[in-house]
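Example 9 (inverse folding). The structure is encoded as follows.
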């Protein structure tokens, strides 16, 4: 069995999908059968992938130009034929976009969320139309769908009308860097980021569905109720339709307490989590929610939405609030900042819950899906 993987997403670790691609490929390298049978297909990215996958078989297409248009053309029109000519038996797209016009092989796709259907107005027009056009068509075209939570599975079944038997839920895993956060790591991060005051932390792309506005509102309300020294750190690259967050912080009279860190190196996250009073993550919608998992592993309490996939990820190890409940979010933040026993309770529960998630298990179960799809294709051919 020969497996082709569209590994383009592994080039960008600043997103949840990029982290999924990166860690899945690294975990495949530990499975002898997978390591020998998988070929990675890339557009202009071989040198970067070689840094973390030096032994992998790689087929790289060198094209001029950058951005989404060349990538989409390559994924839709070039990659399927290239994989077929290379003798692949199954082709896996690590995001929701399957080849709509040039299907040459059995296709597996990973669907991370259906936010573009659940919350369409939180995307700019171009992005929304593209995702909606490609999303459900890809789901219906794919031979098998991997998704990352039971919540997203329910969305796929409801919105695309897909039978349960065609979908496999395989959760994200947890990087080992979040499992042993030493005092030395935390002290180095304190110095690097000039962390002089206790702080609450948000990690993720700054976009509307992450609910940054209500985080600012709740932080402001907490400070009105309790004279605390805390800051709010927002760690993540700028997304879309976010507006001016500095101005928004000013409207809530917390501009002097809010710091925009931008995208931070992945290796710095454990130290940021480890120093934070809590991770605040009240998203309107998530397909999984990797930052809460990472924070729990570091022993950092998490406050998350009681919607979509987040209750699956944190179970009883996190504090659940409605994403529109600013008062409830402010109260949870204030209690974690002032009640040491309450904070210790969640600091202890978090690592236990996080230990249930493994990239090795994710890779093993994903490879089983490839085997299942390949065997089904062989039966149909016969």
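The amino acid assigned to each position is listed next.
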């Amino acid at each position: 069995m020969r497996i082709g993987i569209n590994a383009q997403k592994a080039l960008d670790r600043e997103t949840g999908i990029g982290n999924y691609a990166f860690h899945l490929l690294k975990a495949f390298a530990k499975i002898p059968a997978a390591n020998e049978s998988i070929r990675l297909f890339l557009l202009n990215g071989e040198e970067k992938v070689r840094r973390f996958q030096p032994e992998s078989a790689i087929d790289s297409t060198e094209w001029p130009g950058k951005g989404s248009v060349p990538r989409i053309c390559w994924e839709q029109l070039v990659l399927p034929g290239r994989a077929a000519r290379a003798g692949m038996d199954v082709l896996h797209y690590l995001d929701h976009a399957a080849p709509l016009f040039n299907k040459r092989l059995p296709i597996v796709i990973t669907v991370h969320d259906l936010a573009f259907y659940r919350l369409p107005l939180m995307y700019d027009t171009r992005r929304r139309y593209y995702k909606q056009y490609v999303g459900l068509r890809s789901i219906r075209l794919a031979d098998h769908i991997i998704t990352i939570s039971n919540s997203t599975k329910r969305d796929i079944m409801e919105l695309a009308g897909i039978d349960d038997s065609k979908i496999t839920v395989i959760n994200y895993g947890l990087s080992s860097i979040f499992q042993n956060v030493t005092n030395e790591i935390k002290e180095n991060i304190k110095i690097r980021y000039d962390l002089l005051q206790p702080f609450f932390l948000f990690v993720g792309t700054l976009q509307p569905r992450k609910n940054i506005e209500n985080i600012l509102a709740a932080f402001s309300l907490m400070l009105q109720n309790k004279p605390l020294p805390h800051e709010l750190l927002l760690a993540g690259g700028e997304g879309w339709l976010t507006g001016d967050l500095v101005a928004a912080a000013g409207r809530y009279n917390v501009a002097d307490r809010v710091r925009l860190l931008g995208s931070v190196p992945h290796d710095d996250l454990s130290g940021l989590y480890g120093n934070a009073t809590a991770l605040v993550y009240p998203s309107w919608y998530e397909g999984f929610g990797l930052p809460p998992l990472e924070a729990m592993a570091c022993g950092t309490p998490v406050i998350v939405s009681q919607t979509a996939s987040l209750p699956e990820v944190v179970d009883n190890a996190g504090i659940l609030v409605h994403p529109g409940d600013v008062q409830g979010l402010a109260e949870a933040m204030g209690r974690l900042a002032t009640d040491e026993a309450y904070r210790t309770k969640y600091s202890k529960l978090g690592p236990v819950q996080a230990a249930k998630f493994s990239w090795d298990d994710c890779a093993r179960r994903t490879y089983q899906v490839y085997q299942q799809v390949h065997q089904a294709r062989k039966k149909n051919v016969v």
